[in-house]
Amino acid sequence: MALDLVSYDEGRRREGFTLLCGVDEVGRGPLAGPVVAAAVILDPCNVPEGVDDSKKLTSARRLALESEIRRSAISFGVAVVSPGEIDRINILQASLLAMKRAVAEMGQPPDFILVDGNKPIHVSIPQETVIGGDATSASIAAASILAKEYRDRLMAEYAARFPGYGFERNMGYPTKAHREAIKSLGPTPIHRKTFKGVREHLPADEVIGQMRLI
Question: At the top level of CATH, which class does the domain 3-159 belong to?
Fold first, then answer.
């Protein structure tokens, strides 16, 4: 675990915030599936070894750390915003909503929130936005791990329900194979109908409906 990630959080705790929460989301870029966010209050005396930006970790290490974080954290919450909601309110608002919901899911409310990115979430709790937060704060990194693992499991379940799209491999992201599957098989109910790469392959009546949403 990078010591600077822990020291960043410790700096905020020295300001008097004892229930410091990191919040992060995953799934802004895919053509299919939900946005998932997690919120985590780490126990400063029991931070799992190796917590880091989820993108820097192997899948096996992320899975092991997910279990350790869930076991040792003071509190955590995970929340989902569906593809339909994404289409209705846009991906940025959906990401912020997912993070707000994740905080609401926590059994122990935080007294300060570190939010990954440059947009605050709509809660009354004091907060700080941190660009590149999952590589800066241990709390945000822990949230990124929980969100990533939760979403990956959802996409694996969707792969069994909607075979042919490779969701278990691409997690809904716009790989060449995934784009070709949309062209040949058509979009599924979990595809984001307002996204380029999906909307041009919708039936005409659904396209009209989406035009009303935009």
Answer: alpha beta
